[in-house]
Amino acid sequence: MARAPTFARIEIKDMVRIVSLPNLEGLEGEACAWVARIDGGDMSDDDHQALKEWIGRSPQHKRTFEKAAAAFMELRSPFTVQATAQKPAAELKPAYGWLRPLGAWTAVAATLALIVIAVQFRSGASITAPATYYAETGQQKTVTLADGSEIILNTNTRIDVKFSPDERAVDLVYGEALFSVAKDPQRPFQVYTDKGVVRAVGTVFSVRVRRTDIEVIVEEGIVELTPSAARRTPDGGNNEDSIVAPVTKLTPGSRAKFDETKQTVVAIDADALDKTLSWREGVLVFDVDPLSYVVEEVSRYTDIQIVISDPEILNIPVGGNFRVGETQALLDALEEGFGIEVRRVSDDLVYLSPKS
């Protein structure tokens, strides 16, 4: 049976405040004991090392310690402010070990912060400032994140990255990216889109934001899809604990397309996987694909507008390998080998029609 909460009576001049303190049981009790030890100011180097080890035992240890430290700082703040307004800090005396002059409070807060930060960096759970990365039209860019994960941005892509001790979050705002995720079971790697969340721990997968849906292709590892009920705004809007939406697990060789209401998952063989992800090598591979699809894909890498002016050629099969961004090479190949007339209306507009 849990014990009833204890209370502390704190007095300063004419003010009295009754504060409920947590029961000194389990992790909460241990965390409070560590905070009190720091407050006492007699921490040795061995004590600091022991505290770092205790915090680093699990995410729950770290969260419990942070809560205890936050409660401690909140408890003293109203009294510190009012007391310092009434008399010099040097004349203030501690009461019950909880009230200290402002300078001492600052030292305690700094000690708490340094210990937590040290543990975060030791465990690899570092906090990084939010960062945005772009690849312009026709560009491809490789980004290495603080945890060692690597992201290849395809043409016309933007991502917003925000790491915390509990989560590695990437917002794929638009475009396509290939993620090679460093393993960290305690901090899932989550890619947020406007139609749902793609979650992984250590794996290789691509995510593409399309006009009507999101496409996910898994090369290695296990990936989970959660529909848009799980959408988190970049500043931490939704709480993951409140998510009740169904989760779909994808295995290597899976291709999924999903939107807010439905998901489709199919298996693709190794050749199809290599073809689909060939863009990461700077190559577009077409294998008897309809001209309409080829034009759609190539158009992603150029500012030139390519228009198929005659529906008769929409489904002409096209095959070949083309370097990313080499639009002219593709147009030359269509004209020379596929019976298609290429009419250049301007520098940024091309019409395709059957040769007469």
Question: What keywords describe this structure?
Answer:
single chain; 356 residues; alpha+beta; Jelly Rolls; Phage tail protein beta-alpha-beta fold; seven-stranded mixed β-sheet; seven-stranded antiparallel β-sheet; 21 strands; 29% helix; disordered N terminus
Describe this structure in words.
With 356 residues, the chain is of the alpha+beta class. The chain has 3 domains: 117 residues, no CATH class; 142 residues, Jelly Rolls, CATH 2.60.120; 73 residues, Phage tail protein beta-alpha-beta fold. It has 7 helices and 21 strands. The strands form 5 sheets. A 7-stranded mixed sheet has the order 3-6-7-9-10-13-14, with no helix packed on it. α1 crosses α3, α2 packs across α4 and α3 packs antiparallel against α4. The N and C termini lie far apart (90 Å).
**Average pLDDT value?**
77
What amount of the residues lies in strands? 25-35%
| Main sheet record | 7 strands, mixed
Give the overall silhouette. elongated
Gyration radius, in Å: 29 Å
Kindly summarize this structure in a few lines:
The protein is an alpha+beta fold. Helices cover 29% and strands 33% of the residues.
Secondary-structure map with pairings?
Elements: E1 6-12, E2 15-21, H1 26-40, H2 45-55, H3 59-86, H4 102-122, E3 131-135, E4 141-144, E5 150-153, E6 157-163, E7 168-174, E8 176-180, E9 189-193, E10 196-200, E11 204-209, E12 214-220, E13 223-227, E14 248-250, E15 254-258, E16 263-267, H5 270-276, E17 283-290, H6 291-299, E18 305-308, E19 317-323, H7 327-337, E20 340-346, E21 349-354
Helix pairs in contact: 1-3, 2-4, 3-4
